[in-house]
Write a structure and sequence with these properties.
Elements: E1 14-23, E2 26-36, E3 41-45, H1 52-60, E4 67-72, E5 75-76, H2 82-87, E6 90-92, H3 105-111, H4 121-125, H5 129-148, H6 164-176, E7 182-186, H7 194-211, E8 214-218, H8 222-228, E9 231-236, E10 239-244, H9 246-251, H10 253-260
Parallel strand pairs: 3-8, 3-9, 6-7, 7-8
Antiparallel strand pairs: 1-2, 1-4, 4-5, 9-10
Length: about 270
């Protein structure tokens, strides 16, 4: 699979700058800053309650930070709704699969293409020839994405009939359908067995290599993180306690105390 554009040499950096987030008297994030460099796999990890999901949701536009900002290149993302972020090239998958279970694989992936489609209700209703051609192109691209992920033969199956691991791939395909420069993966290995986890690791690497995109993943599987991440940021009690290459993070005393010595998070 190749990028939908001719080239993708201008993938911007994603910057989280001095982000704090409060819920009432609870500080979920405390002055968190890190940068995801273009074309890298960046992992965000930490024990239960560390603030990973809160940080992820700030980046995704679900939460607006109390302080600080998020930037994609020169564009400030803070306060933008998720649908606007999708149009800017940010795609996301979900830990708890966010798919229409009664619809087919293709229909679910096509939902991600809607942000790229032009035309209004009238043009769609009368099936204008240019709309038909546009839809055909989007179906072809959705099919290509599914083929790359190994689920092309399941295009017309309802998601409800799929094994859990395959459904996770459909969720990633839907995220890829927005043609992202930044792909956000929320615990892609959650609920997978060892074989499926190894396969998802290979898939994530392949996506980065084939598309040249940046991938941010929140993940609790340390084996997966350390095997594929170019850089790792570690949160504990809402604070950033480490940020660097996997080998250095693995040896960081604060990380060992806060994360590696703790039980796995759900």
């Amino acid at each position: 699979m190749t990028a939908d554009t001719d080239t993708r040499t201008d993938v911007p950096a994603l910057r989280v700058e001095s982000v704090s987030l409060r819920f009432g008297g609870i500080r979920a994030l405390d002055d968190v800053s890190f940068t995801m460099q273009p074309g890298t796999i960046h992992a965000l990890i930490g024990p239960n309650g560390a603030g990973k999901s809160s940080c992820f949701n700030v980046i995704c536009g679900v939460y607006k930070p109390t302080e600080g900002s998020v930037h994609l290149g020169d564009t400030q993302l803070t306060g933008m709704k998720p649908n606007r972020l999708a149009r800017l090239g940010i795609g996301r998958s979900f830990q708890n699969i966010a798919l229409s279970l009664g619809s087919t694989v293709l229909d679910n992936v096509m939902l991600g293409r809607h942000t790229l489609m032009s035309g209004g209700f009238l043009a769609a209703g009368v099936r204008a020839p240019w709309m038909v051609r546009q839809e055909r192109r989007h179906v072809e691209r959705a099919t290509e994405i599914c083929e790359f992920l190994g689920i092309g033969r399941r295009l017309h199956e309802p998601v409800s009939a799929l094994p859990y691991g395959v459904a996770k791939l459909v969720d990633i395909a839907r995220a890829l359908a927005v043609e992202p420069t930044v792909l956000l993966l929320d615990e892609p290995a959650a609920g997978l067995n060892a074989v499926e986890t190894a396969e998802i690791a290979l898939t994530i690497r392949s996506l980065r290599d084939a598309l040249g995109i940046s991938i941010l993943l929140v993940e609790h599987d340390m084996g997966l993180v350390m095997s594929i991440a170019d850089r790792v940021s570690v949160l504990d009690f809402g604070k950033l306690i480490a940020d660097g290459e996997p080998a250095a993070v693995r040896e960081n005393p604060e990380v060992i105390r806060a994360y590696l010595g703790a039980g796995e998070e759900s």
